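User: Hi! I'm a student and our assignment asks us to look at how structure tokens line up with a sequence. Could you show me two examples?

Assistant: Happy to help. In each example below, the sequence comes first and the structure tokens follow. Example one:
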Amino acid sequence: MHTDLVAALDIGGTKIAGGLVDGHGRILLCAQRPTPAQEDGDTVMGAVEDVMAELESSPLWERTGAVGIGSAGPVDASAGTVSPVNVPGWRDYPLVGRVRAVTGGLPVELIGDGVAITAAEHWQGAARGHDNALCMVVSTGVGGGLVLGGRLHPGPTGNAGHIGHISVDLDGDSCPCGARGCVERLASGPNIARRALEGGWLPGPDGDTSAAAVAAAARAGDPVAVASFARAAQALAAGIAATATLVEIDIAVIGGGVGKAGEVLLAPLRKALADYATLSFVRNLEVAPAQMGTDAGLVGAAAAALGQRTGTLAAGV
């Protein structure tokens, strides 16, 4: 039987998704379980095993030749372990070995979730056709990944491109990571909302204090909401410009929940980027919204597994 499919896992603090994916990035079968994030490590692994069991029960499983995992991080691909910040039961958890055992010894490729989304956007989304790209996830946190020279660049541990923890404000607030003034501390959804509230923004009668509510207020012209998004955009622009200057990317793709704010974020981001990306080789840097949506994690994990098998980013690329 020809093994033309890969199994993909997308593991986050809220849900564990699995899929069987073909060489064109199509998800032929999906399974999902809630992440029991506050339980012990083996309970969390039980949810992963439930997802895998559902995939393995399909007749398509016999066409599956490898497994790709995109996981919330930090991950350590060299050791096959994961330590997701929002899943305290998993610290240096041997996820690759456990998944390999469940699948009867199939090869398993592990990358961070930001790298997975980057792989998806480069294979099938907004970064398609670009050999050098930064893809960012701006959400509860800020993550990302790199494509360099036409190939996914996960780095030795699978975390390369983690732009959220570039420091862009040397005297800024301390970040939970231990550094100061990180992009994430300024541009993540919760921090956009926090800054708006501290500045005197008042939520509507529904009491919604999310970044999406701040985005809606900014769209309606609320000056405090506009200012909070402008500050987030400035931090993102500084991080993107630093990355572009270092490795010469030609497109930055913005995804994640905050990325869905659209021009409320992208317009000030492009304006701020013009102030930071001033050297000739970064001046024409394109900024684009992500295209892959909620399937990005699965498609990207599949791309990484296919890339290991074919020596490229994904089969046929």
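Example two works the same way, sequence first and then tokens:
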Amino acid sequence: MNLLTGPRTRVWGGFALAAVVLFGLAPALLSDFRLNLLAKFLCFALVAVGIGLAWGRGGMLTLGQGVFFGIGAYAMAMHLKVADAELKGQAVPDFMAIAGKTELPGYWQPFASPYVAIAAVLLLPAAVAFLLGLGVFKRRVKGAYFAILSQALAAAFAILLVGQQSMGGSNGLNRFRTFFGFNLNDPANKRMLFFIAGAVLLAAVALIRQLMQSRYGELLVAVRDQEERVRFLGYDPANVKLVAYVVAAFLAGIAGALFVPIVGIISPADIGIVPSIAFLIGVAIGGRATLLGPVLGAIGVAWAQSAFSENWPSGWIYAQGLMFVVVVGFFPAGVAGLFALARRRRRVRNLPDPAASAVEALEPVKVPS
């Protein structure tokens, strides 16, 4: 095998190219506003990577990723608001002071520590997904029932936050000034957040690729296609699904935590049913069964939404719906599936024609005189 065209070389070459684009070309070519916008899209791509594992490889239609995105986002936002209040010498964040409160609620107090906030971002979404998945998958809930349940969870979580004035209510939490001591109004720190988001995304893609290429990845596909046969072989499909679901929630929580300082706000509107479906649309358009399809689909759909909203504000929702219908109806494998189909056809064209080979074999051999 040629080392320059081997699978490992292509993988490392792909990661190197992505690193050059993210850490070299993008900061050099984009303005600060566009770079910050791309950092926001990278957060969406991070959620999409987890959905690609759970839905694309595991067959679990996760319509409630906004819940785990929101848990990570609110955990980070609570710490940032408390840290900003401490810098000002105030006992409570600004929105609580306006409401007349003079003391932090009990469940806010631990988030004054950055270590607690980071632990909550990493552990809480995964823990919630573990408990929810344990109850759902052990009862063999799947298909449309699982999708409806996860969507209902996202709706309930958003409604719960709207009624919690200590969490900002429908306005959410916003106006963050610092991020672990760094001034968020400084353009250099904004770029730092972009680099962090890019590095985390590359690490997440590497993690998911390792899972897909491992024995676990093969078992996950087997559970998706023939769950009863896998159970007959002695494996518990519920445990296999649970791992993918927890990993997807883990990545969504990290994405939410990065989203907060990058965008500067988190509210129930960012974590309900509509955002959860938007995550899914990007994955479907990009190609849910591939590694890079969800990433490119999420970034592409988010970029298209921004471009449409700037020039055609009322038309984006129709364009998004049309794209989803076209992909589901005519290209179920997504855009990445089209490239895979083209490669397969090219390989088939390059194969020798069996009929011609058979005729050639039957031709008499000419003996030289």
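Here is something you could point out in your write-up. DSSP finds 15 helices and four strands in the chain.
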